[in-house]
Design the sequence.
């Protein structure tokens, strides 16, 4: 496993204590898991995602991610309705390891509440949180 | 110091069955046909399954060779936490194989099965006594089925009270099957966190316990190997809102004859006969997951139940509130036999002593290694202790490397990366059946490995070096499983 300083945490994303990230794009918000999360999990072998149109409350479980080590729940940081799901993860779960912020994104959600994104951690706060965890 | 067990030996290569053999080869010869040939119905004819063509000797050697690549508790120490991989005395196997039992047919009438029925009834009584519960069903075939049965009992109880409840509280130190058993029964699992001491506190339970919650599923001792000391207080909180306390008793090996589950507030408890009461396991069964309950839940137990009437043991279905049948016939009878033989041959004092030794052994390992391995919860443990790889943070070696390395020393690796509440967990359960010399050897091996991990992590990452098969490609195996020959 890598040290915090070896991991990437883009400035333009927001993060949660459960290691999901979110990024506003047009009318939707893209969601995935952080570089730290994929590194902790190890080789990811299966990603279970919701259906388009499913609705979630903030903090709800929207899927699971399974690695050779463990199965982890995916908790949604934003309330709303699923617009799109990254179905390529079905056949290529390794994308979450290779490119957690790019091709490894998981869902895009249409937010139902205003500014839940703003309550999420910015990069520096998240990195501080991770350092405190160690 | 004694020599480590791990060594190289003559282990033979063996291909897949489909890769050896020859068309037409077989394990037996059919006698010459002495009746007229009669064609099969056309729906029954096709090319048939692809069964490898092998002689008997080919098959015997195939499986013997594969077995030599393997490792079991009869080979060496198997300190797999959360699994109680203890040695099971062979006398219990022998008793279970007595022709009168082994040849018994479940369709025989009760008049011809008095011995078997008596054993079921008496084993229920023995398990009641050991756990301090009032009534027992032996039907469930494994721990998870015991959990499901327990949930069905909970549901039946609430229904009888005219109460509709939809949630179950499950701590993060419960066994992983608990939330699935609750969910399968239609309950919504409500997860709660254990405290900084690794156990549950009453106030956390009080925050979520309400009248829509059917109860709590506690694993005690929990998956950190710690005793849930606040269980009485937790039970009071749950009971005060009309809920029930379910206890996952898979870790009963730590507390036989020591904890009276009935008195600490447990209403439903399942046991794993295949862990605690002498049935070899780890290969997927057969198991047995009896469920023990307090008197108020007895009417709901699965049927048929063995009852004694006019000096005869009979099966009775006359329990109108029963949840019904949960298993074909009466459960895994062979496992019950072994449990009965084990309990009777040990006696109450020795069962208690087995638990005491299991706890002593785990604490001994914990104390001997805690200055080297990181111990997240430094307090007396029960039958297992949990370390982490935090001490290797800077060295890039991990729990996985230590586990693989242990194979080269002749030990089965412990449970790793579980429980999930501990990062990089290494969970060791020595059980009562290992002697001090072997435990010392395990401790020594773990010390040598820790040293190697710190000084030469790259070398450790090559381990295991002595086994027939080195590191498997677990990732590809999981991503693209190939399940055919």
Sequence:
């Amino acid at each position: 496993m890598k040290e915090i300083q070896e991991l990437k945490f883009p400035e333009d994303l927001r993060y949660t204590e459960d290691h999901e990230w979110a990024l506003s794009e047009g009318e939707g918000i893209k969601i995935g898991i952080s570089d730290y999360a994929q590194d902790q999990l190890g080789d990811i072998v299966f990603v279970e995602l919701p259906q388009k149109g499913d609705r979630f409350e903030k903090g709800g479980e929207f899927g699971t991610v399974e690695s050779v080590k463990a199965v982890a729940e995916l908790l949604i940081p934003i309330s709303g309705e699923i617009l799109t799901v990254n179905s390529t993860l079905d056949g290529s779960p390794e994308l979450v390891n290779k490119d957690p912020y790019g091709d490894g994104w998981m869902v895009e959600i249409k937010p139902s509440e205003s500014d839940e994104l703003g309550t999420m951690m910015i990069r520096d706060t998240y990195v501080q949180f991770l350092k405190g965890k160690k | 110091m004694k020599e480590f067990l791990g060594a190289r030996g003559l282990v033979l290569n063996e291909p897949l069955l489909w890769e050896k053999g020859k068309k037409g080869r077989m394990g037996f010869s059919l006698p010459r046909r002495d009746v007229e040939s009669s064609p099969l119905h056309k729906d029954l004819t096709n090319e048939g399954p692809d069964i490898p063509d092998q002689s008997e000797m080919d098959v015997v050697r195939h499986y013997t060779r594969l077995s030599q690549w393997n490792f079991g508790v009869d080979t060496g120490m198997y300190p797999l936490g959360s699994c109680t991989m203890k040695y099971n005395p062979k006398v219990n196997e022998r008793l279970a194989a007595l022709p009168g039992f082994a040849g018994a047919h479940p369709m025989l009438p009760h008049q011809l099965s008095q011995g078997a029925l008596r054993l079921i009834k008496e084993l229920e009584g023995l398990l009641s006594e050991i756990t301090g519960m009032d009534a027992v069903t032996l039907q469930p075939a494994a721990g998870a089925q015991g959990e499901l049965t327990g949930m069905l009992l909970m549901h039946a109880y609430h229904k009888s009270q005219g109460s509709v409840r939809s949630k179950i509280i499950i701590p993060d130190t419960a066994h992983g099957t608990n939330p699935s058993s609750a969910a399968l029964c239609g309950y919504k699992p409500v997860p709660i966190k254990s405290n900084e001491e690794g156990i549950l506190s009453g106030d956390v339970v009080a925050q979520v316990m309400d009248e829509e919650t059917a109860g709590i599923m506690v694993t005690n001792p929990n998956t950190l190997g710690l005793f849930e000391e606040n269980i009485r207080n937790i039970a009071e909180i749950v009971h005060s809102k009309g809920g029930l306390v379910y206890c996952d008793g898979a870790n009963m090996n730590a507390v036989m004859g020591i904890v009276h589950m009935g008195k600490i507030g447990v209403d439903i408890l399942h046991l794993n006969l295949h862990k605690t009461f002498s049935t070899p396991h780890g290969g997927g069964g057969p198991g047995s997951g009896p469920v023990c309950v307090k008197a108020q839940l007895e009417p709901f137990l699965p049927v048929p139940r063995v009852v004694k009437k006019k000096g005869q043991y009979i099966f009775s279905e006359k329990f109108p509130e029963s949840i019904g049948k949960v298993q074909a016939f009466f459960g895994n009878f062979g496992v019950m036999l072994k449990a009965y033989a084990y309990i009777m041959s040990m006696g109450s004092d020795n069962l208690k002593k087995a638990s005491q030794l299991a706890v002593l052994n785990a604490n001994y390992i914990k104390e001997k290694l805690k200055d080297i391995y990181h111990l997240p919860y430094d307090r007396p443990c029960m039958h297992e202790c949990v370390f982490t790889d935090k001490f290797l943070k800077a060295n890039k070696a991990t729990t996985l490397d230590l586990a693989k390395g242990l194979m080269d020393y002749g030990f089965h690796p412990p449970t790793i990366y579980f429980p999930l509440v501990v990062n990089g967990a290494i969970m060791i359960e020595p059980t009562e059946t290992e002697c001090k010399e072997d435990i010392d050897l395990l401790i020594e091996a773990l010390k040598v490995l820790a040293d190697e991990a710190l000084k030469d992590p790259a070398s450790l990452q090559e381990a295991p070096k002595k086994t027939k098969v080195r590191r498997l490609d677990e990732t590809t195996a999981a991503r693209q499983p190939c399940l055919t020959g």
In short: The radius of gyration of chain B is 25 Å. Residues 176 and 419 of chain B are 9 Å apart (CA to CA). Chain B touches chain A through twelve residues (CB under 8 Å).
